[in-house]
Amino acid sequence: MEPTTTSNQTSLSGARGLTQQLRRMGQVEAPPTLLSDVLCNVDIADRYFSLDTPLGPAYIAYNSHGLSAVKRTESSEEFEEEFRRQFGRRAFSAGEPPATLATELGKELRGEGRAQVRFDLRGLSEFERAVLQKALEIPRGQVRPYAWVAREIGSPKAVRAVGTALGNNPIPIFIPCHRVVRSNGQVGQYGLGGEFNKRTMLQAEGIAWDRWEQLAAGGIRFVGNDRTHVFCFPTCGDALRISDEDIVYFRTEAAATSAGYRPCRACRPAKGA
Amino acid sequence: MSTAVIGVLLANGTGFGAQLPMGLLMMTDDGSSNSDEKLSASLVTNLECGFEQVVLAYQHRLYGFALRLSGNPEDAEEIAQDTFVRAYHALTTYTPPQTATLQLRPWLFQIALNVFRNRVRQVRPKQVSLDADEGGPADWLEADRLDQPEQVAVNVERERALSLLIDSLPEHFRIAIVLRHIEGLSYIEMAALLGHPVGTLKAHVHRGVKHLQQALAMIEQDEHRGDDEDSWTEAAMSEVR
Predict the structure, then answer these.
(1) A12 part of a folded domain
(2) Which tens digits make up the pLDDT trace of A23-52?
(3) A85 interface with B at CB cutoff 8 Å
């Protein structure tokens, strides 16, 4: 090599050249994933991915405690903003969901069984948690009234608060708040895009919607089986198996009990089931 | 030449400021002492938000430090991540006054150093391969030469050569040089972090720098003589050791 090629450089063996070069060596960029890896590792940030649902693509966030949020926003940026506003921590794109989580959620969405996932409900009150836990007990394709949830969690008078808690469900779709409806046949509010979406969710689960609406509009709250003398909510699995000749209709719990019917143990339409 | 180096080191060092308050001693060119105080304050106010700020402020420097210690990006990333995770868990156990008075920078570097040392203890000590057949330095130099202008290539080669030279220094020299000259810590910070007197650390830095200079001078001589380039790093390094 010709000496001229190095003549315009600061010699590295000189003091100044060496310290300058050493200082430059410290100017390294950390990998872009370091921040998210650290914050997620110590549990002060979540990861999220996009998933197709009956309502269209939704963003799903999770952390070591389980699923933490489901939202439908126009963009991932909007999701991150809303997530941070609501939970006070950041959500980082996970790209693809972890394989087991994707399998479980897909199973649930296709109606092949309940997803074996945990839910992160840390930010909620005990009452809100109780409401959502109760909603989780409602089987796919069935609905229960708000008042039922209130009674089941031991706060029969807190029907309105139950509605609020369900409306604030951070993990709709997978905590099925859409399965809680008004007993007069109206579906009621839905946090994830209003009444229309709530109906879409229930239809995707194959609920006999027209029949249920018809009964509710006619003031029918319960159906009974003339053979067993058991009465149910109209969408209860047992109710759907009653043959046309055995089915009887009740407007009130009192009417059913005074006719000698006892409440179904599966759907528990009345106290003391 | 070496006298000049000592002069530079002393001027950059903090030997003159032993009576100054700690806060001032920590101050460096980039004003990081000031921002460290803000970071500590935000950790006290809200640990989660404050910690995110700490990671943002220190991720590049701790990664760079880890890269220099471990010599490869994969280990560096793990060391940096581990460092922050340990720091966070420690912070959750600190009282507000403890957090507020924390000397963030040396504290984080110390954790990184501990993480690195624990890893080294667990796995076989790192060996830098000097054999060209094993994909050693000569291989990368060759690859870089293919598509870079010669002048740039020379700079890159020199940085890599320097990097290898640093890696080959005895650990106490290496860590001292990295902290002082690459990461820009003060001797007071280094003393707190490494548990050695300032004088010892200055000696380590000085002797380490001298080793590097001697090796680099050899390399430069060889360049001028137009010797076989692939063998110069090796020759220089065997000299250092």
Answers:
(1) no
(2) 888 788 999 999 999 999 999 999 999 999
(3) no
How many Å apart are CA B4 and CA B91, to the nearest integer?
Answer: 43
Adjacency order of strands within the sheet including A66-71: A66-71, A56-63, A45-53, A90-93
Shared-domain flag, residues A135 and A176: yes
| DSSP letter assigned to residue A3 | T
Please indicate, yes or no, if residue A169 is contained in any of the structural domains: yes
Q: How far is A2 from chain B (nearest CA, A)?
A: 7
Mean pLDDT, chain B, integer: 74
Q: Does residue A213 form part of some domain?
A: yes
B117 touches chain A (CB under 8 A): no
Q: Locate the chain B residue with the closest alpha carbon to A11.
A: B220
What pLDDT digit, counting tens, does each position of B86-107 carry? 999 999 999 999 999 998 999 9
Kindly give, in sequence order, each residue whose CB lies less than 8 Å from that of residue A64, ignoring residues fewer than 6 positions away: A43
Give whole-number Cα distances, B158 to A264, B110, B137, in Å.
82, 29, 11
Residue B109 and residue B117 in contact, taking contact as beta carbons nearer than 8 Å: no
- A10 at interface of B, judged by CB pairs closer than 8 A: no
Q: What's the CATH number where A247 sits?
A: 3.40.10.10
Mean pLDDT of the A226-233 span: 95
Contacts with A, B 124-143, CB within 8 Å? none
Distance in Å, alpha carbon of A68 to nearest chain B alpha carbon:
17
Same domain, A126 and A87: no
Count of domains observed in chain A: 3
Write the CA distances from B163 to A21, A25, A45, A195, B68, integer angstroms: 10, 8, 36, 64, 8
Please name the residues between 221 and 240 in chain B that touch chain A, using a CB distance below 8 Å.
Answer: 223-224, 226, 229
Q: In what order do the strands lie in the sheet with A262-263?
A: A247-250, A222-225, A230-232, A262-263
Annotated active-site residue A232? The verdict is no
Give contacts of A 171-230 with B, CB under 8 A: none
Helices (H) and strands (E) in chain A, counts: 12, 10
| Same-domain check for residues A126 and A151 | yes
What is the reported pTM? Answer: 0.75
**Domain presence at residue A7:** no
Locate B117 and state its tokens.
């040392």
- Under DSSP, is residue B105 helix (H, G, I), strand (E, B) or coil? helix
At B86 the pLDDT is 96
A28–B4 CB contact, under 8 Å: no
pLDDT in tens, A112-135: 988 899 999 999 999 999 999 999
Q: Which of A110-119, B18-27, B63-72, B207-216 has the lowest mean pLDDT?
A: B18-27
CB A46 within 8 A of CB A65: no
